Amino acid sequence: MADKKSDIQEKVKRQGEIVRKLKAEKADIEKITQEVNKLLELKSQLGDEAPQKFTLKTPKGTRDYGPQQMAVRNRVLEKIITVFKRHGAETIDTPVFELKEVLTGKYGEDSKLIYDLADQGGEILSLRYDLTVPFARYLAMNKISNVKRYQIAKVYRRDNPAMTKGRYREFYQCDFDIAGQYDPMIPDAECVRVAVEILSSLDIGNFMVKVNHRRLLDGLFEACGIPSQSFRTACSSVDKLDKSPWEEVRAEMVGEKQLNPDAVDKVGEYVRLHGDAELADKLIADPKFDVTYLFPGETPNHVENSTDGPVSVGSVAGGGRYDNLVGMFDSKGKQVPCVGISIGVERIFSILEAKLANEKANSALLRTTEIEAYVASAQKNLLPERMKLCRELWDAGVKVETSYKQNPKLLAQLQYCEERGIPFALVLGEAEIAQGVVKLREVSSRKEEDIPRANLAEEIRKRLQS
């Protein structure tokens, strides 16, 4: 009996301890709740939390293009496309990213500059490095063996950017390529011609086109009497001319490499030549060479595509043959000979942007829209009439706009036209509406003339063409 009583007392004691612990925990919870409520009250007094501050910028190696820059860019692209079409090229488009396996191994050391993307549904992708490999993949995939194509699109390279010299990580390439089995050098010559036409049309200053190929140098060595087994060793010496004078190069060729002095001197006559039309005439007349791949009446008076304009950007174009690339994608290894030229529009744009900064007074360079006329009102409450005239001219194919204000001041409307370089202001007033005419004002000369409303679109087109 005593043992039972002792057990009960022990249980009561344990229950009492549990109750005391629960009361203590409850008190702690209430205390914590009170502290949380105080914090919330203080926070409400401070108002909304200030947003986290960070620096707004474009990713490294990229930039924004405002309306003025885009206006210049679009004009450049229009001229480039005009040349491509003049030579019979048709355009294609390819994805901005490719399967990584398509790009891997096609660029040698430059493969490390490819941007890789995260796994997307089991496909390992990379951003295109240029437009040539996607074009070769397109040819092989679609079994195309003959095409003359152009493509203008963005490419991506994880390179060290030099923004002032037009070297970016995201940039446009403008490619012209000829694919197919043709007689030697004829497509190559047209690619050079395309580059010359484009650079000549863009008003970027003087430039040189450097044509180079190892076989050209081999032909020079052969013509000068260098034995074929010595072509490579002679070439390694001539390559030093960029950094060493001819005297040192000659001493190496004759002294160290034991080449015939007379043959080396003949080589020296040619490798030291620089010039344009005069040099071309000399080479054409030289019986040692067969210079037949110039278009009739043309000499390469644009002989590195670097310019001497307001900013030096180095090479602005490059190209060459890639006869074995298509076969790398073809299951049977079928080869499609290809040659092409790529224009670096970003570097050209750097030149033109520098010119633009020096010619701010030239409003023709600064226009960012193609608006041909501005519908203005001389009095209040004519918004419906302005909108009606806009609709008539839009239907007639005229590029017009008007103020978004109900009752804009006439002076402000005319100033808008002058600032934007809009050719014509079309002024409406109650008198003009009643007479069925519109006052056509030439913004540059400020001359005005009433034009019948029915003839307005035709009159604007006629004056724009004159």
Automatic annotation (TrEMBL):
Source organism of this protein record: Ladona fulva
Molecular function GO terms recorded: ATP binding; histidine-tRNA ligase activity; RNA binding
EC number per UniProt: 6.1.1.21
Top-level division of the source organism's lineage: Eukaryota
Keyword check for Cytoplasm: yes
Lineage, broadest ranks: Eukaryota, Metazoa, Ecdysozoa, Arthropoda, Hexapoda
Family stated for the protein in its record: Belongs to the class-II aminoacyl-tRNA synthetase family.
Catalytic activity field: tRNA(His) + L-histidine + ATP = L-histidyl-tRNA(His) + AMP + diphosphate + H(+)
A Pfam family matched in the record: tRNA-synt_His
Residue ranges of domain Aminoacyl-transfer RNA synthetases class-II family profile in the record: 61-384
Protein name in the entry: histidine--tRNA ligase
Key words, A-Z: Aminoacyl-tRNA synthetase, ATP-binding, Coiled coil, Cytoplasm, Ligase, Nucleotide-binding, Protein biosynthesis
